[in-house]
Structure formats: structure tokens, C-alpha cells
Amino acid sequence: MADKRKLQGEIDRCLKKVAEGVEQFEDIWKKLHNAANANQKEKYEADLKKEIKKLQRLRDQIKTWVASNEIKDKRQLVENRKLIETQMERFKVVERETKTKAYSKEGLGLAQKVDPAQKEKEETEQWLTNTIDTLNMQVDQFESEVESLSVQTRKKKGDKEKQDRIEELKRLIERHRHHILMLETILRMLDNDSIQVDAIHKIKDDVEYYIDSSQDPDFEENEFIYDDLDLEEIPTTLMATSPQGHTEDDMFLQSSSTPTSTTSSSPIPPSPATGTTVNRFLSFFLSSQSSLLRISVIFFIDPAVSEVNLPPSLGACPLGPTPLTKEQLYQQAMQESTWTHMPHPSDSERIRQYLMRNPCPTPPFHHQVPPHHSDSIEFYQRLSTETLFFIFYYLEGTKAQYLSAKALKKQSWRFHTKYMMWFQRHEEPKTITDEFEQGTYIYFDYEKWGQRKKEGFTFEYRYLEDRDLQ
Fold this sequence. Notes:
It is found in: Cytoplasm, P-body; Nucleus. The two termini are about 20 Å apart. It contains 14 helices and ten strands. It is extended and about 100 Å long. It has helices at about 1-35, 40-65, 75-100, 105-110, 110-115, 115-155, 160-190, 195-215, 250-255, 310-315, 325-340, 375-380, 385-395, 400-410, and strands at about 265-270, 280, 285-290, 290-300, 305-310, 415, 420-425, 430, 435-445, 450-460. It is α+β, with helices and mostly antiparallel strands.
């Protein structure tokens, strides 16, 4: 439970930073467009780039949480990730405008390129992209709910209501994926000018009705939404089966340049000997799932479709598998082993052994060698608090300093990285927020070498040294 609260606190702080970053981005964006000269624009552009880099780092953290199974409700995370991606798209517009010189041929002809038909096409492409994203987000929610219900049904068998809900969610996931595939195909056709915008407008209401009402009890789906678009008769160069293993990042990277699908196909010309117009082509999809390589070969023969699954070895070596050498088998085993022993950030910090700076002879009745188990945390926990402070401040960079810090943390002392002092709550804080806590604290003053009390002290969490000392 404590780990979940800590994780939720980290998520809340991250989302707060996203909101602040987007607000700062908007402010710089307005200043950039109101700038009077080129020097100001360059300055604001640099500030904008710095801000988008911060947002991208936050987006990477959010993506990690979205992929985690510990978080069930991911709607807020997905919304914030998409909010950051929107700002990334806006920044790309700024970059393109900067690269387009004011008096170049491209700059002078820019106003002539945007005509009503092109604008309508771009708006339709944006609608298709947003609709696909919405469907994908709903699929993620359905899958999360299925996983949660499956765990509950394993604990309590015979719950027919939950079983029915799972079956209903699986049916919705299947229908959603069908619509995603159809809309991705339409998106590719529109990008290649193989379909008219008016034809897409005819299905818009039905698709939006499906998204809004597909979970209603009295919902009746129109199974003939796409029949008028003749998707079965489109050229084979536009047909591609979307792999189930595609990631959201692939979707974003593809849509940031030209709205295309996450997969593509390369047509193979028909054999001249046949003299027919039959197109046959192969599409290889490689996706890594649980360290397994899956290769699918799709044959299209304008309208029958057949699928053949090949073993990974035949996909890589059509003539048959080649036995691995002893060295290759060893390297493969070592590579698999690395995934089960991932490094920790603290592993890069080398622990130095304590070496006496000024060794001197001592009477034989004193310890001539360190006491038994003196390098263990149990030994340090038996030492007095003042002794631990002495070791921490006077044996810097040694294992002894590390163990003394670990022992102090177990006594509820917390290190303040700004003042370089150890603090301990004297009583429960009067104020606790996501950013700080305020109250009365006991701290150790290493300059006057003694414990002091500080009332009304604000301990900002950004100065808290909170590494997990293993």
C-alpha cells in the first residue's frame, strides 16, 4: 500500500510539472509570435526548444507508467502524454517556419499552396488520426479492465456477471480493432489521393456514433459503414495488415510526418510469363514480443487473402536453420542473463574501503584489527547517533560513510542536500503538500557539533536525498 501511495505521489508531481511546462510553453509561444525582430525570435525559439525538451523527458516517464501493469486507470496519463505530443507538433511547425526563409521561393509561394481543398483534406486527415487515437485509447482501457476482472474471477470462481462482462469487453476490443484497421486504410488512401474527402464525410457520423455509444445497452451497430467506400477493390499497394504488436510511439512518429499506417507493403510485379494483372506481394512484419521473433508473410491474390506463419529460423534463413557455434550459444546465454540482472543507478558508484590516513602503533590491549562484522549495517545500528554523524562527516567517500548514512535513515533521519545536514521530525508536520512539509524539526549542526531544534521550518522535497541505499 505504501508503494502505491509513493507511486501515486510521483505521478501527481509529474502531471503537475506537465501542466506547468505546457503553460510555460504557451507563454513563450505567444511571445515568439509577437516578437518584433529576428533577435527576439531566436531567443524565444531557444527557450521554446528548452521547454519542449523538458516536456519530452516527462513524456518518456509517462510512457513508462502507461506500459506498467501496476497502474490500472491510465486515462489521465494517456491524456497528458497526448497533450505533450500536441506541443511537440506545434514546435515542429515553428522549426519549419524558421527553416523557410522569408524571401525564398518556398517562403514566397507558401501562401499560394494552401487552398480550400487542401485544407479540407488536412482537416479530414486530422479527424481520422484523432479517431484512431481515441479507439486505441478505449482498447487500452478495455484490456486493462479485462485484466482486472480476470484476476477477480480467478480468486472468486463462478461469478457469471464478471464473465459476461469479460466476454463483452473482448467483443468490443475485436470490433474496435476492425474499425482501427478500416480507418488506417482510409487514411492511407486519402494520403495517396485514392479516395474523395466527400466519401469520408458520409461515414463520419456513423463512426462518431459508434465511438460515443458502442457501450450503451441498446446500441445497434451499422455493419455496412464502409461498404460504399469499396475498400475491397482498392489497389493492393494500399492494403497492409496492421501488426498487433505496434506501439503508440510508432503511431506518433508516423503521423508526425505524413499520416500513414504503422506498416507498409512493397508490391512484387507479376511474372511476365503469365501476362496477367494479378499483383502478388509480400509483407514482412517483425515484432519483438517476450524475446520471440514473429514473422508473418501475407499473400494478396486485389481479392483473396491467405496468411502463412513461418518459423523464425526460416524467416532469417530460407534455406534452413544453421546450427550455432559454442561461442554463439555462450553469447546468447549471456545476453539472456543480462535481462534478469538489470543494473541499478547506484551500481555505478564505487564503494571505497576505509584506509587509515595516519596509522600509528597502539598498545596491544587495543583492537589491532577491526572488530568482527564491523562492516555490516547491524554493527552500525548499535553505535550512538553522534558516532554515526562523526563517521558520516569525517570519513567521506568510504564504505563507513555509506553504512552510517544507512543507519541514520533507519533512525528516521533525512539528509538535506542544500544545507548538508541531517533532519528529523520533532513532531508531526503541520503542513504537508506534494512539494514540501512544514513543522518543527531536530537537526544536527556539524559546525557547532550538536543537535538543534528549528520551529516553523519548511523542508522542500526537492532537497531531500531519497536514494534507496541497498
